Amino acid sequence: MVKEQGHVNWMDQIFRDYEKDGGLKNNPGFGKPLPESVLSGNMYDDFLSKAKDAGFLPLWIKWQKEIRQELSEVVSLRKMNGEGDDMLLTRRIEEINEKVRTYNAICPPKMQRREIEWATIESQFEKWK
Fold first, then answer.
1. Potential cystine with 111: which of 8, 18, 54, 107 (Cβ 3.0-4.6 Å)?
2. Residue 46 exposure: Cα atoms within 13 Å on the Cβ side
3. Distance (Å, whole) CA 53 – CA 117
């Protein structure tokens, strides 16, 4: 059995047992070449399309939705409070910028965004929609 840091890695053992019993050879595509459609085109876009159809959201899209929601709340609060420099809103923008940095680290380069600035928050929010 495979051990990791003193613990048994049960998933490795289950997979090895499955492999030992010939489980992989019983799969319908075993030993056959990949279809031409898999090897052509943009594999990244194909993956995203199939993942979306399956209900999977990449982590960066989840972050994007969360940032958009928080920006919406800050923009609404700012409109209610006027143009005053509210410490609470400033702190929330700093927290959102932490998330923007994380988002930028995990999303495709074309999807990266600038950090949020107090002076242009409304126009930046529109870009996150």
1. 107
2. 7
3. 35
Q: Specify the pLDDT at position 23.
A: 72
Place of tokens 């019993």: 21
Enter the DSSP assignment of 129. -
Q: Phi/psi at 8 (nearest 5 deg)?
A: -80, 130
Q: Report the candidate in 115, 38, 112, 39 with the shortest Cα–Cα distance to residue 71.
A: 115
CA distance 98 to 38: 37
Q: Which of 71, 68, 59, 73 is nearest to 103 (CA)?
A: 59
The torsion defined by the Cα of 77, 62, 97 and 117, in degrees rounded to 10, comes to: -60
9 CB-near residues (< 8 Å, 6+ apart): 1, 2, 3
Residue type (1 letter), 34 = L
- Report the sign of the C-alpha dihedral through residues 19, 25, 29, 34, in that order: positive
The per-residue pLDDT for 104 is 94
Q: What is the pLDDT at residue 127?
A: 86
Element at 29 (helix H, strand E) = none
pLDDT at 41: 63
